[in-house]
Amino acid sequence: MNKAVSSFVPGVLATSTAATVSLAAPMGRLSLRARGDLSALDAALGMTLPTRIGQRNAGAICLGPDEWMLHADDIVPIVAACAAIYEGHPHSLTDVSGREITLLIEGPRAAELLTLGCARDIDSIPVGEGRRTVCDGATVILWRDAPDRFRMDVWHSFAPHLLHLFETGCRELAAEAA
Questions:
Q1: Who contacts 65 (Cβ-Cβ below 8 Å, separation ≥6)?
Q2: What domains can you pick out in the chain, each with its CATH number?
């Protein structure tokens, strides 16, 4: 698998009767680090930041006691709102939009496909939550949207490697069912 990530366009990348792996459209991503009373940030963001690791709220996921990943179509208003409260509530907000892509993994055996690279018990991730984890050596953020639908944020440089794994896995799982 030598295909460059920049040559991928949103759409289906691998499919079988077991699962489908697609590339999602590009989106804005912000890494947020903050401590203490989060009410000013909540007000600036127009939502309550989740506070339990793995918990999600709208386009935000809590990755650590003081760390969130925010997804948005337009990050400009978020950056401006957070900048306006910075002096009263110091925080770190970094645009990481160009660092990652999102793979959509869905289908009747999507969770099983993920076990090819993730040592984590995929079934233990409740629908509506997510986790930072490792998939075949690459750090990823795994979002569970439904029992058979996941999103995986992965750095561009690891995407071809994981896509190759998922292409092979889709074929193997489909062959088992045949």
A1: 53
A2: 5-26+98-177 (3.30.1360.120), 28-95 (3.30.70.1520)
Give the whole-angstrom CA distance, residue 144 versus residue 5. Answer: 24
Using CA atoms, how far apart are residues 131 and 120, in angstroms rounded to an integer? Answer: 10
Distance, C-alpha 27 to centroid of its chain = 11
CA angle 51, 91, 157 (to 5 degrees): 80
Q: Is 133 helix (H, G, I), strand (E, B) or coil?
A: strand
pLDDT tens for each residue of 110-144: 999 999 999 999 999 999 999 999 999 999 999 99
Whole-angstrom CA distances from 121 to 114, 126, 133 are: 10, 11, 11
The answer to whether residue 146 scores a pLDDT higher than 90 is yes
